[in-house]
Write a structure and sequence with these properties.
Blueprint (H helix, E strand, L loop, with lengths): L2 H20 L7 E9 L4 E8 H14 L7 H4 L8 E4 L5 H17 L5 H21 L1 H4 L4 E11 L4 H10 L7
Parallel strand pairs: 1-4
Antiparallel strand pairs: 1-2, 2-3
Helix pairs in contact: 1-4, 1-5
Length: 176
């Protein structure tokens, strides 16, 4: 798996996404930019949200589900409720091919008894996403951010302990 190429392609495509977003009317009071990652299957999605879209979502949910208690705080970091969603495999055929290669390697090729190789691939994939986020910092500066703006990585169907494990152990694999 060519992780360096994955990082380069993700940075190329997501820098375009962020630049385009920064020139839109939605670039006001952006409070979050995050990568939602499934390292077990090779899925990557960039989410952005701003304060006005958060308020709209809360009002819509309160009207649709009056018996539930939706608040800005309860939805602030609920990426599935963010308004701006960019799936990596839809941005370019290069990324789609790289993610398919990763999926084939992790899900189909690696013998699950070879746990060391499996975890090395997951850690390296995680490190690639961390590296991508770092390389996008100059583009993130283009956003009209709130004082409490946060950019981060979240993992699909992963508890806090496994998330910390993936983030910490990814530092032990070689450079990308």
């Amino acid at each position: 798996m060519n992780y360096k190429s994955l990082v380069e392609n993700l940075v190329l495509q997501y820098s375009k996404v962020i630049k385009e977003f920064s020139q839109s009317e939605d670039n006001k009071n952006v409070y979050a930019l995050l990568f939602h990652v499934d390292p077990y299957h090779g899925a990557i999605t960039l989410y952005l949200n701003n304060e006005s879209k958060l308020k709209e979502t809360v009002l819509r949910y309160q009207n649709m589900y009056p018996n539930d208690s939706y608040t800005e705080e309860s939805l602030r970091h609920s990426s599935g409720d963010f308004s701006f969603v960019y799936h990596a495999d839809e941005l370019s055929s290069n990324i789609k091919d790289l993610l398919k290669t990763y999926y084939n390697l992790v899900v189909e090729e690696i013998d699950y008894e070879d746990t060391e190789r499996y975890w090395i691939e997951l850690f390296t994939f995680t490190k690639a996403i961390k590296r991508t986020l770092q390389k996008l910092e100059q583009y993130i500066l283009l956003l009209d951010k709130t004082d409490n703006f946060d950019s981060y990585i979240e993992f699909h169907d992963t508890d806090e302990e496994d998330t910390n494990f993936l983030l910490e152990e990814s530092e032990l694999v070689g450079m990308i």
